[in-house]
Amino acid sequence: PACNNDDDGDAADVAAQLAAAQAAQAAAETAQAAAEAALAEINTASETTTTAASNPSALTANVDTVTPAATSDVLSSGIVGTIQALQSLDTIDMGDGADQITAIITTAVTPQLANVETINYSSTGAVNVDMSASTGYTSINNTGSSAILQVSNIDAGTALSLTNNTAGARFDMKAASFTGAADSVTISLSNVTAGTTTMSAGTETLTINSTGGTTNTFNTATIAPTTVNITGDTALTYAEGLTATTTVDASAFTATLTSTWDPAAAYSYTGGSGTDTLTLTGTTAVVETVDLG
């Protein structure tokens, strides 16, 4: 029989087109699978990064972002190479729980801390930590500093402490919240044997809690409280000779208290259950009421 070359050619063209279409579809499916695999890797990496950021153990030399967690977390911030890990551009929100950060400070910083209840600073340089961009903290501890660390713009009501210190320190409360007639500061001491601690001048009531087992020698500047409360169980020497103080209450103190005062107005002193060595100086004639406990 005769062959129809045109029909054979048309069939070959159709077969070639079908094969090309099938190859294109297979290539598209392969590309789609590769894209989906790449997207899955990106999502996995993102999830891993978020998880690591939400429950960190240490800051880095880069700009860090710490996201909230529903647990009590502990974060450390040291010196990475020569760089202070805690930086002003870091954003740290530790969420729920009783969280804390311990940071070594060598340069001035304005940390962005949120919901970090306990903040521990240790400084090797006379620098300032400005707390104006931080919220949600309840205590600030200066521990083991070898130079005068200034912590400024501290929220009213924050518990302060000074530990293992001979250099002195500075604590400045936020001025806007320290303008009343009944502003108070509480500071705990442990192994403070020298140095001068500068505190906010607008303080009306100062509470000193002496702890740690080694006699604390507390020297203050600027602060001029009308009432000083002394608590704790470790011997304390406080010989500032303050003139503005009219009431000293050490009734809850159980150790040896050595103190000097220079009252300029009617003055009362109540000692604790330990030994009291009280020195009153000055030439102003005032009414003094002394109960050595």
Task: Provide keyphrases for this structure.
17% helix, 293 residues, alpha/beta, eleven-stranded parallel β-sheet, single chain, rod-shaped
3D structure, described in words:
- This protein is of the alpha/beta class and 293 residues long.
- The chain is built from 1 helix and 25 strands.
- The chain has one helix spanning 5-54; strands spanning 65-66, 74-77, 79-80, 83-84, 91-93, 100-105, 112-114, 118-123, 128-130, 139-143, 149-154, 159-165, 168-173, 184-192, 196-199, 205-211, 216-217, 219-221, 227-232, 236-242, 247-249, 257-261, 267-270, 276-280, 288-291.
- An 11-stranded parallel beta sheet has the order 2-6-8-10-12-14-16-19-21-23-25, with no helix packed on it. The chain has a 5-stranded parallel beta sheet with strand order 9-11-13-15-18, with no helix packed on it. A 4-stranded parallel beta sheet has the order 17-20-22-24, with no helix packed on it.
- The longest helix is centred in the first third of the chain and has 50 residues, at 5-54.
